[in-house]
Amino acid sequence: MKTKFVTTSIAYINAEPHIGFLFELLAADIFARHWRSQSEDSFFLTGTDEHGAKVASAATTAGLARQQFADQISGKYLALKEQFDLSFDYFIRTTAPTHQEFVKQTWRTLLQAGQIKKGIYRGRYCTGCEAFKQPSEIADNHCLVHNQPLEKVEEENYFFEPGGIITQKIADWINYRLWPSSRRQEAINVLHTGAFKQISVSRPATKNSWGIGVPDDPSQVIYVWFDALLNYLSIEKITGQKLWPADIQIIGKDILKFHAIVWPAILLALGRDLPAALLVHGFINVDGRKLSKSTGHIVRPQELLDHYALAGDLAVDAVRYLLFRQLSFYDDSNFVWAEFDTLYNGELANGLGNLVARVIGIGKKVAKFELPQPAIDRLAVAKLDFKDHLETANERINQADSIITAEKLWENSNDKLTKFNEVVSCLVEATGILLPFMPKTAGEIRRQLTELKSKPLFPRLNQ
Question: Which residues contact 77 (CB under 8 A, 6 or more apart)?
Fold first, then answer.
């Protein structure tokens, strides 16, 4: 049976991690943990994108050599694994020699097939995106993503020419494999502009020397996006495992065209299958403003852990839960500390934590306490809504609490075993749903219920 394969985009290292990329990492982690809970082999890939003009500029500003800067910032992304109990199997870096050699080999393959050719490129370039922009992405000569003036560029580049037959194949794939459906038409519209009949895949070394050199042409450097996208295939060369095609690829909406159009075109040109699903998440705004690494308007991952530190070892799980319970995955969301705190007290401290303590208190009084195994809901991509899964868990928690209160199960518990077993079943079902979201908490609940020893899970915040 094929190994389930989930990927995130690889983080661009011109600045340190923020909550937006953490959100993406956690989403992939939820899938990987869910598959493992179903006894399915899985592989979770993430990493860092380390080439390009912005990284070179950031290194200069920091007073560091480029590779030294890449090592330092990449290390901060890698550190998220332990900080947030992430279960990724490999952390790939585009400065790694094996990846770079794979990119060069792929370049040679496409060049020999006549799908990469040299020519003159004219267009408008956004240094923030490190990308040439199409008319639909421009307003008053400004990039719609970064709101900065575009550079008019005319230069000699290499072009990737995937061929006309690929367009319809990509359109068909978008219509059935890209979520949410609201992003499909956006991708189709860009595809049909015809702008991707020729895709610039190199830049003059005089403008950006920080990258993988074009084989046999020292005047050119492979375009950072072409380099970065190939990480999803180079992992096979690095690990020796057959992983592709991905079952799920998770990206942010700002890099939709690269993953919904350029990446499938490269795959088809190489004779490779397309990913089974591409999930596109929205932006996280803070106080109504878009996160921005360049301006420093961000929420750092460590701030979340510090804020909920009173939960001790379960602070990580609290953050994991709150992000997916409060924020929308597919649409843009607004991060507000006060709303997170209210949710923490209401659903984690007063809800889940209080229910576990009540069940253990009653369990000590009954003659025979049996703990059933959880039946874990499957996370179906076609109906994926993280908030829906957590809502279902909360319904079971509330149902259990209501039964305890209505039946006064703390009184004459042995006479009401049927009702008490119903409560336990609700809690166990909720715990099963929560497992990929809150792995430590699920294990701690199981331990407490097995030993009938209660310890507060989520102490209340003083708001």
Answer: 11, 13, 17, 21, 47, 48, 91
Distances (CA, A) of 278 to 5, 44, 245, 252, 318: 12, 15, 12, 10, 27
Two tokens, residue 356: 């576990």
Place of tokens 């699920």: 442
Which of residues 288 and 173 earns the better pLDDT score?
Answer: 173
pLDDT by residue (tens digit) across 41-57? 999 999 999 999 999 99
Give SS3 for 276. coil
What tokens does 379 get?
Answer: 């996370």
> Is the preceding omega at residue 245 within 30 degrees of 0, hence cis?
yes
Identify the CA nearest to 5 among candidates 271, 260, 348, 241: 241
Task: Report which residue type is found at 394.
Answer: N
Q: Predicted confidence band at 295 (pLDDT cuts at 50, 70, 90)? A: low
**3-state DSSP assignment of residue 324:** helix
Burial of 414 (0-12, 13-18, 19+ CB in 10 A): exposed
Burial of 239 (0-12, 13-18, 19+ CB in 10 A): middle
Q: Tell me the CATH class for 337-451.
A: mainly alpha
Q: Cα(249)–Cα(232) distance, rounded to whole angstroms?
A: 9
Number of Cβ within a 10 Å radius of residue 456:
15
Separation between Cα atoms, residue 162 and residue 167, nearest integer Å: 9
Q: In CATH, which of 3.60.140.10, 3.40.50.1100, 3.40.50.300, 3.40.50.620 is domain 4-286?
A: 3.40.50.620
Instruction: Look up residue 425 and give its two tokens.
Output: 């079943």
Span 171-185, average pLDDT = 94
- 219 Rama sector, left if φ>0, alpha if ψ -120 to 50, beta otherwise: alpha
Structure confidence at residue 99 as a pLDDT band (50, 70, 90): very high
**Residues 235, 233: Cα–Cα separation, whole Å:** 5
Most trustworthy range by pLDDT among 138-147, 161-170, 289-298, 331-340: 331-340
- Which tokens hold the place of 294? 């360049």
What CA–CA distance (Å, rounded) separates 400 from 419?
A: 9
Residue 66, token pair as written in the block: 């480029």
**Which residues in the chain are classed under CATH 1.10.730.10?**
337-451
Question: Residues of CATH 3.40.50.620 domain(s) within the chain?
Answer: 4-286
Over its C-alpha atoms, the chain yields an Rg (Å, rounded) of 25
Answer whether 169's CB lies under 8 Å from 132's CB: no
